[in-house]
Amino acid sequence: MSHPRLPETPAALETRRAVRDWLGTYAPNGVVAVGLSGGADSLALTAAAVVEAGAVDALVVDHGLQGGSAVVAAEAAATALRLGCRSARVLTVEVSGSGGMEAAARRARYAALDRARDGRPVLLGHTLDDQAETVLLGLARGSGSRSIQGMAAFADPWGRPLLGVRRAVTRQLCADLGVTPYDDPHNSSAEFTRVRLRAEVLPLLEEVLGGGVAAALARTAAQLREDGEVLDVLARNLLASACDGNGLLVETLATAEPALRRRTIRAWLLAGGAKALTDKHLRAVDALVTDWRGQGGVAVGGGSSGIRLVAGREHGRLVLSLVENEPR
């Protein structure tokens, strides 16, 4: 099937260039899937990918959270085929679980895309504006540089070619194509923190600071991610040196710089089953190395019902153990 040509507008050229660069770096075989919501960002991404990639398969997730969602999903799939996708599938999911509707919908969406991708990378339509919002959310959590590194251009299997492209560009490309994007009502609902960041906080920051805030936040994320990748390599080396069976040698950890030591401890805890680690957790475990006064272990958020995962110090080693909760 011949692919439709995109108009040679500034929006089309910028979006195509971003997708072309991403494909050249991460998917040289050019066969990809695209997570298509029907919104402007994913529609623009799909249109550019069809021109730049060897083959594009659209995956449309129907969360079933709104009346008429099946119709919206079917229309998005039809648009994908008109744009030149090789195939378009609608994936129906059930949204449930803890953490609120937004988090539950995200889990269901990513799980469905992962099941359907058939070994292909999945391109997602996150833009520079989304990256800026993510950095602000990370700042609010206050859990260190990792939380403000934003989203990666590629975190296998998820690809984000448009992290350097503004949301306004994707909307303009849709207009250039004569395609009407779907505007999800949830994207304008003030009950969601990200929506308020988008509609209230970022515009105010742009006004007060004289513009360029979103781009500056995205640059900061990219710089921190580069730094973080180097630190992760060093931490893996330190982890290998400090490993002693299932534990870590305190003597080896104690000679490392604090930032590197805590990064190493974090990797070890996560590999051991720790969940939802915070800076408070890491500093408490770090104190078992640097400020040892015989204190007890630190619960690190893993385990199961009635059982805690605890990091402690025994005979010069950090160790993980499962401890039953004390009856109340």
Total helices: the number is 11
Summarize model confidence as the mean pLDDT.
92
Helix percent band:
40-55%
Number of strands: 11
Strand ordering within the main sheet: 3-2-1-4-6-5
Low-confidence stretches: none
Task: Please state the structural category.
Answer: alpha/beta
Order of helices and strands: HEHEHEHEHEEHHHEEHHHEEE
Radius of gyration: 23 Å
Could you walk me through the main structural features you see in this protein, from its secondary elements to its overall organization?
With 328 residues, this protein is α/β, with parallel strands linked by helices. 50% of the residues lie in helices and 16% in strands. The protein contains eleven helices and eleven strands. Strands 3-2-1-4-6-5 form a six-stranded mixed sheet. A five-stranded antiparallel sheet has the order 7-8-11-10-9. α5 (128-141) crosses α7 (193-209). The longest helix has 30 residues, at 213-242. The protein starts with 9 loop residues before the first helix and ends with a strand.
Layout of secondary structure:
Blueprint: H1 10-26, E1 31-35, H2 40-52, E2 55-62, H3 69-83, E3 87-92, H4 100-116, E4 122-123, H5 128-141, E5 154-155, E6 158-159, H6 167-177, H7 193-209, H8 213-242, E7 243-244, E8 247-249, H9 250-254, H10 258-271, H11 279-290, E9 298-304, E10 307-314, E11 317-324
Parallel strand pairs: 1-2, 1-4, 2-3, 4-6
Antiparallel strand pairs: 5-6, 7-8, 8-11, 9-10, 10-11
